[in-house]
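Q: Sequence in, structure out?
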Amino acid sequence: MSDAQRHKKEMILDAAHEIAAQKWSVAEVDQLRRRLIADHGESAKTSNEYIAEVLKEAGFKIQLTEREQAEDRFEEGCEDIVHFKTLQDAEVSLTRLDELVRRFRAHGETAAVGRVMEIARLGKRRAEMISLNRKVEEKKRREKKEIAEWFRIWLETPDAFFDWLDVRQGSPEFRAAFGVVEDE
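A: Exactly. Output:
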């Protein structure tokens, strides 16, 4: 880090301590940016994003948008949640996604609900891509196609999904293709 960068970080942190905000929203970060320019002139010009990054690195509580706040809560709750190496993994992943959506809806966290749905759509697309990959063995491609269908149905009708899944797993067609799925 150059002396100029170190000096700019020190200026940001000094100004932050003077402002003493409980949390740093867009408004507080912009206030800090304007204060730097007023106190130190053109040499203190910097972006709100850089200021927020410096504050975050220093341990300040940053809340730039409602979506970011919801995403932070979401990330804490569902790190590495979508797995579908096996049909059982996919079922567990969908159960976790369903639990998160219900919890976030109950707390009115629409941004977090949107993020969960986005992750489910990504999981569906990932399963579809693997199912179409000719380099993957046929049995795995069939499983991934089935998993993509599970994600599609959960995304379209989450309230009916687990009843549907019980019926699907008990169907002769499913059992012929995949056998009996054991609960872990």
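Residues 15 and 32 are 7 Å apart (CA to CA).
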